[in-house]
Request: fold
Amino acid sequence: MTVAVETGLWQLAPARSTVAIKHKTMWGMVTVKGTFSGVTGEGEVQPDGTARGTITFDAASLDTKNAKRDTHLRGADFFDAERHPAVVFAVRNAVLRQDDTVEVTGQLTVRGISRPQSATARVTEVSADAVTLTTEFTVDRDQFGMGWNQLGMIRGLTTVTSTLSFTRTSA
Reply:
């Protein structure tokens, strides 16, 4: 597929988008998976084909299918959602490559702490008024003040996966 994304403003379609995390715990024996349901976003494709924008998700919307764990993850040991309700990925630059991938650079803010973040996204659907991107990247939760690790049972990096569908709102 050869991608040509129209310039202008784009809005995330939350019903067709997902942001999920997975992390090994219990000394690597169990993978905890969760999905954020409160995801919003917008972006702008520039005339030169580059893009910038913001993806925001509600830290309190994380659902791992375990209420007790979810309460702990939303608390001060992890996301501290009461004091820092939003996780934000500010895309500073996104460049479409010949192989229908998009090189994304930006800043991830979790718990009020911002760090540079990059990812490679794949364009999976495209039309004049819609585009869908998928990506997977890793994050070191310790860099965001999320170092809680009782008995050393949580190790390694957290994997973030997303499918983000955008619709064109204007030229």
About this structure: The radius of gyration is 17 Å.
